[in-house]
Structure formats: structure tokens, C-alpha cells
């Protein structure tokens, strides 16, 4: 019988060798991508938790505000209202005389109070710090003072602060301005002051993009993991397998949504967001208003408690033309009536005109009526009214913005859960909960697989694993890293730092291994 046996053919051996080599290469790439995914997840997990929890609070800030601050924002409807200007006067009686009216928000409904925003003119503003507001509430039916609060106080204020890592509050660094490079006249400052915490958030956000991309790669079906389900949770298996399936399913299903949230959120960051704004304005400029303007911009009134639409920040506030030397500004009540007749969305804010002196001449500002934010793209609107006549100087909407600005505003409306109403809010809620679930299942995976008494943290890839990694995979990852580093320079610098630390640690390990290899066997016992 032994004589009937034949040796394997050369073709068979060649195929077998090729398959073994391919499996070894795939396993090497998987091992290294998994290590990358683990360490980024460990680094990004605290930020993801903070963003998800604070995002949920911001997403439901309106109902939360109505509940937590009902004594301030809710009133009993009455037959008649007190003139709006009298309400403003009543509010000013309860703040220091030096405070100035920043904006007035008439009631958004019959059971809502009037809000008067006042500012301390001596308080630091952007870029030195975050412009703060004191919000004073008045009953529109009785003119009674209801109370006041700091806009950064309470649960909602804290969530807004944390979600953007306190903006420019705290230590700052000066970073190069792309706008100054491409349009020095429009952006005279060569650098952008950026809060260190906000910059850290920006860098982490891009690393989260890498986390999502590596997670998708690990999930992607391949021959060496043919038994792994794609869109199914093996509940009966229990332990790490169950948490792994749930982790993968949650991450893959939400990946596209989360990538959209990260990209739209980056447009708000202090550094990359400002550079993106300058780039968008140059590549796809908005329609300019054919009217004399003041030195002020609408972005000067961008507050945490009263946001201005992203695309409207750079809008210059038009100038008013007095009819004569005795011309008097219109009242808030007059402007409110005009805004209502123009179909502004209830809840709009009336920003008072600010006059300035240019070359010894007085330049009179105009009233700016801004629709409440967050808003749908179709609701993005600012009505500029002559402070003396009430005539509409310009009606700024999203239709006048450049293509990139409209795209950015759309992304922000999706990010805030407003663009498609309740459906968008449900999607945002699911995304926040999904992030928390992914972090929790990732932790449980690590906890259940770690060896007893050890950390279970992945070690550096071995020389064999590095040697088995296909050159094509290395080139692909390198190109992707370079592209991300160019698009997001702060991330690029952080990546170079990580690579430098990795190189130092690698060199140290090799030195230790070489020293150990030089010690003769048994020498340590002498």
C-alpha cells in the first residue's frame, strides 16, 4: 500500500505556501491594526464619554431648561402685555449700571418670559476668553422681574462648556492662520489664539476618526475570520465573544453617523474651524451686501447662550442712515413688530445697534434680528433694520452663502439634531447612546480577556509580525496618515510626537535586548 502513495505535487506545495503566506500577512496586519485601535480607544474613551454625555444634555437643552429653570422661563398668560421697552427697563434695574444691553429676546410663546441679555463691558471677550452673558428674565404681562442667571451656570451651561473643552478660557497658544496666508487683508492677524484644552479636543477628534476607520477594518469580513458574524450578536456565547459582537455591531452601524458628527464638530473648533472658515470664504465666497457697513460683525455677538449661525459670523453689520440731526432710534417694540410681520421664527433675538466713530465721523449701526439657534438650514436668517426708519437694509439667509458655507451649516444643523426635526434628534440620541455602549463593551472586552494578574495591554508588534506585514498595507496606512496630517495639522504634529515616542521606546528595548544577549549564560549566578 505504501507503494501507491505519491508525493505532493509542486503546484500543490506552491498553493499551500501562498495561502500560508497570505494568512500570515493578514494576521500581521490584523494584529497591528488591533493594537492601534486599542491604544487610540484607550486614549479617546474619556473624551468620547464626555462628548456623549454633554451632547445629550445640549441636545435636550430646551426641555431641560423649561424644567430646571421653569421659574425664570415660564409665565402665566395674561390678557395684555407690558411694552417691550418697559420690560427692558425693568430688567436693567436689577443689574449694575455699567452693564449694557446685548440683546432682547421677546417671548417665543404665550407662556414664555422675555429675556434681556446684558454684558459687562469690562469683561474679557474672544479671543482673550469666552464672552459671558447675564440673562435677566421678565414677565411680559406684568413687567415683574423674575430673576437672572449667568449663561454658563447650571447643568446646561456646564455641558456647553465641557463639550467644547472651555473654548478659549484658560491657557492659550498662538498658531499660524491659514486665512492670513491666503488673504492677509481680510485676516490681518498672522496667528490664531487657541485654548489648549480646545486644541486637545480637536486633536482627539481626528484620532477618533482613525479609531473608527481601524474599527471598520477589524470588522471587515476576511477569510481568516470566516466564523466571525458580521451583523449578529452571539448572546449565547457569553463573555468576551458577546461583548466583541455587540461592540463591532454598534460601531459599524453608527460609524457613518459618528464620522459626520466628528467632521461637523471640527468646523467649530477654535483652530481648524477658523481655518476652514477662511478657506471656505475664499473658495466659495458668499454674496456681499451692497450697503455701507460698520466695523462690527455679527460674530461679535456670538454667545454661548445665543449662538449665531456658523456662516453668518463674518457678516458685517450694515450702517443706518439718519434722516436728520434730530432722528431718534426706533424702540425695541417697533423692531419686534417689524420682525413679527417679516415672519421671523418666534424666539428670535433683537441685537441692539452699536454706533462707532470712523475717521472722526459717527457710523450708526443697525438692528440685527437673528432667528433662534440651533436651527434648520432653511431657518438661518438675519434681518438687518435701519435703526431710525425700520427699513430692511438686507435680509441675510443661507441662500446667500457660498456652497461650502451652506454645506457646513447643514452639517451643524444635523450635528445639533435640528435639520429634519424629531428624526434628526432621534438619530443624534442613538449616536450618543451608541458611543457610550461602544466604550462600555470595549472595556468589558479588555476586562474579560486580560490574563489573571496582568494588565492585558497589547505589546509592541514583534519583529516577525513586522516582517510579515505586507508593504502595500504599510504604504496605504502611511499615505492615509500623511493626508490626515496635512488636512488637520494639529493632528499631524501629534502623530509625529507619537511616532517619535514609539521610536525612542523601540530603541530602548533593542538596547536592553542586546545587553541581555551579551551576558554569558550563568553569569548572573556568579
UniProtKB/TrEMBL annotation:
Residues 82-148 form the PepSY domain. It comes from the Bacteria. Keywords: Membrane, Transmembrane, Transmembrane helix. PANTHER family: IRON-REGULATED INNER MEMBRANE PROTEIN-RELATED, PEPSY DOMAIN-CONTAINING PROTEIN. The chain crosses the membrane at residues 38-60, 199-220, 246-268, 422-447, 473-501. This is Membrane protein. It holds the Pfam family PepSY_TM. It comes from Mycolicibacterium poriferae. The keyword Metal-binding does not apply. The keyword Transmembrane applies.
Amino acid at each position: 500500500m505504501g507503494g501507491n502513495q505519491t508525493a505532493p505535487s509542486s503546484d500543490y506545495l506552491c498553493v499551500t505556501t501562498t495561502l500560508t503566506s497570505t494568512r500570515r500577512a493578514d494576521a500581521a496586519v490584523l494584529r497591528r491594526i488591533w493594537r492601534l485601535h486599542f491604544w487610540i480607544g484607550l486614549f479617546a474613551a474619556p473624551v468620547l464619554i464626555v462628548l456623549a454625555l454633554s451632547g445629550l444634555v445640549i441636545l435636550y437643552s430646551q426641555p431641560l431648561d423649561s424644567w430646571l429653570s421653569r421659574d425664570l422661563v415660564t409665565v402665566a398668560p395674561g390678557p395684555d402685555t407690558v411694552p417691550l421697552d418697559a420690560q427692558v427697563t425693568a430688567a436693567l434695574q436689577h443689574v449694575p449700571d455699567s452693564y449694557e444691553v446685548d440683546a432682547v429676546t421677546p417671548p417665543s410663546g404665550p407662556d414664555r418670559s422675555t429675556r434681556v441679555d446684558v454684558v459687562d463691558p469690562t469683561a474679557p471677550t474672544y479671543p482673550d476668553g469666552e464672552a459671558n452673558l447675564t440673562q435677566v428674565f421678565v414677565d411680559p404681562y406684568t413687567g415683574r422681574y423674575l430673576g437672572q442667571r449667568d449663561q454658563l451656570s447650571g447643568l446646561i451651561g456646564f455641558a456647553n462648556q465641557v463639550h467644547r473643552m472651555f473654548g478659549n478660557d484658560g491657557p492659550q497658544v498662538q498658531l499660524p492662520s491659514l486665512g492670513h496666508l491666503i488673504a492677509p487683508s481680510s485676516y490681518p492677524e498672522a496667528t490664531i489664539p487657541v485654548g489648549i484644552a480646545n486644541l486637545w479636543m480637536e486633536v482627539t477628534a481626528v484620532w477618533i476618526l482613525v479609531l473608527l476607520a481601524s474599527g471598520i477594518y477589524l470588522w471587515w469580513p476576511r477569510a481568516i475570520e470566516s466564523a466571525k458574524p458580521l451583523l449578529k450578536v452571539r448572546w449565547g456565547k457569553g463573555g468576551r465573544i458577546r461583548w466583541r459582537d455587540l461592540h463591532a455591531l454598534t460601531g459599524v452601524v453608527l460609524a457613518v453617523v459618528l464620522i459626520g458628527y466628528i467632521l461637523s464638530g471640527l468646523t467649530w473648533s477654535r483652530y481648524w474651524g477658523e481655518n476652514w472658515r477662511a478657506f471656505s470664504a475664499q473658495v466659495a465666497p458668499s454674496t456681499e451686501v451692497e450697503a455701507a457697513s460698520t466695523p462690527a460683525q455679527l460674530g461679535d455677538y456670538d454667545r454661548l447662550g445665543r449662538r449665531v449661525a456658523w456662516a453668518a459670523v463674518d457678516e458685517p453689520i450694515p450702517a443706518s442712515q439718519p434722516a436728520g440731526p434730530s432722528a431718534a432710534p426706533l424702540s425695541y417694540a417697533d423692531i419686534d413688530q417689524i420682525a413679527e410681520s417679516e415672519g421671523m421664527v418666534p424666539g428670535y433675538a433683537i441685537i441692539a445697534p452699536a454706533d462707532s466713530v470712523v475717521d472722526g465721523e459717527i457710523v450708526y449701526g443697525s438692528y440685527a434680528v437673528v432667528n433662534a439657534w440651533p436651527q434648520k438650514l432653511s431657518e438661518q436668517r438675519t434681518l438687518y433694520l435701519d435703526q431710525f426708519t425700520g427699513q430692511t437694509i438686507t435680509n441675510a439667509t443661507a441662500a446667500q452663502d457660498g456652497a461650502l458655507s451652506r454645506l457646513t451649516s447643514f452639517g451643524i444643523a444635523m450635528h445639533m439634531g435640528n435639520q429634519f426635526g424629531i428624526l434628526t434628534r432621534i438619530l443624534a440620541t442613538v449616536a450618543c447612546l451608541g458611543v457610550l455602549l461602544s466604550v462600555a463593551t470595549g472595556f468589558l472586552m479588555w476586562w474579560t480577556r486580560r490574563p489573571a494578574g496582568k494588565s492585558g495591554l497589547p505589546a509592541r508588534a514583534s519583529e516577525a509580525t513586522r516582517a510579515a506585514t505586507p508593504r502595500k498595507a504599510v504604504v496605504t496606512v502611511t499615505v492615509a496618515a500623511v493626508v490626515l496630517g496635512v488636512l488637520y495639522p494639529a493632528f499631524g504634529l501629534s502623530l509625529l510626537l507619537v511616532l517619535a515616542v514609539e521610536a525612542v521606546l523601540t530603541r530602548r528595548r533593542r538596547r536592553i535586548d542586546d545587553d541581555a544577549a551579551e551576558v554569558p549564560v550563568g553569569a548572573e549566578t556568579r
